[in-house]
Amino acid sequence: MCTRCEPLVPSADLLSRASAWQPRRAFLLAAAGAVLTGPALAQVNVGNASMARNLVPADRIEAAGVQQYGQLLEKARAKGALAGDGNAQLQRLRTIATRLIPFATPWNSRAQQWKWEVNLIGSKQINAFCMPGGKIAFFTGILEQLKLSDDEVAMVMGHEMAHALREHARARMAKSAGTGAALSIGAQLLGLGQMGDLAARAGTQLLTLKFSRSDETEADLVGLELAARAGYDPQASVSLWKKMAAASKNQGGLSFLSTHPSGPDRIQQLEANLPKVEKLYREAKRG
Q1: Are the C-beta atoms of 123 and 140 separated by less than 8 Å?
Q2: Is residue 131 part of a domain?
Q3: CA–CA distance, 207 with 209 (Å, rounded to integer)
Q4: Residue 214 lies in domain
Q5: pTM summary value
Q6: Is there a contact between 35 and 164 (Cβ–Cβ < 8 Å)?
Q7: pLDDT in tens, the chain (287 residues)
Q8: DSSP 6
Q9: Helix, strand or coil for residue 121?
Q10: Structural domains of the chain, count
Q11: Could you give the CA distance from residue 229 to residue 273 in angstroms, rounded to a whole number?
Q12: Closest among 31, 40, 98, 94 to 225, alpha carbons compared
């Protein structure tokens, strides 16, 4: 997820403006129309999603995500840093998303109702995120500085989508508030208490939440399977994190890694799970 944003850097290629609504509408319709009833049973094993998330209403977290996402896009647009629908890199991202989204619903039934959206922001940050509710954004820095292939982009996108599908932000907010406080917040949201507006507070926190190691493992593995089912090479998950590690050493840390803590066994865990999804990838390529 996004950390505190650097000043958005306009880029000439981001200023290309096509007819604004039609391409975006086509992407949204394609993504919505592609939702499936569900693929075969999951091949990766990540267990059940955290029960802590149930302490905070999903619709309020998703509403907060939509609000924060909209604010971020408006800020980027005002600085001339929001990619227009005709931008080639944005079209590339939306094509990849359209292939991944059909495989989201089995991981979270709410995803079928999400209004998925993908945007590109001109910034040197090496970062990307997916807000609760399916709001995806990439920063040009992650594409340009890491020189990501389509397969590697799919791994980043799948990883971020997995955080939303597994409702890690919702669970983290409940856990950080403490059981008693979270229950009180839930009561307030239902009109039963006086604890302020979680949605307003969540809107300022969603971009800076730090995920746990277990959250990261889940996102890696669920994202790996999403991408494999969509026909993207699982081996790209390993090359992606090698690039991340190299960039982190060269730059003294990355925005992406500041909210995605990584351990030395990350690549080993991915490599151990490659055989589980290779068949899915081969079948998708044949199809």
Answers
A1: yes
A2: yes
A3: 6
A4: 48-286
A5: 0.78
A6: no
A7: 443 344 344 444 443 443 444 555 555 555 555 444 344 468 998 877 766 666 778 888 898 889 889 999 999 999 999 999 999 999 999 999 999 999 999 999 999 999 999 999 999 988 999 999 999 999 999 999 999 999 999 999 999 999 999 998 887 776 665 544 444 544 454 443 333 344 445 444 566 566 778 888 999 999 999 999 999 999 999 999 999 888 877 665 455 655 555 556 889 999 999 999 999 999 999 97
A8: P
A9: strand
A10: 1
A11: 14
A12: 40
Question: How many of the other CB atoms lie within 10 Å of CB of 3?
Answer: 19
* Active site (catalytic) residues: 160
- Residue type (1 letter), 228: A
Query: Is 41 contained in some domain?
Result: no
Amino acid at 244: M
Q: Give the Cα separation of 90 and 242 in Å (integer).
A: 24
- What is the C-alpha to C-alpha distance for residues 139 and 134, in angstroms, rounded to an integer? 16
Would 11 be classed as within a structural domain?
Answer: no
Distance CA 222, CA 255 (A): 22
The enclosing H or E element of 137 equals: strand 135-139
Token pair 């290629």 is found at 13
Strand order in the sheet with 135-139: 117-121, 135-139, 128-131
Question: Do the Cβ atoms of 30 and 93 come closer than 8 Å?
Answer: no
Q: How would you classify the pairing of strands 135-139 and 128-131?
A: antiparallel
Whether 25 is in a domain gets the answer no
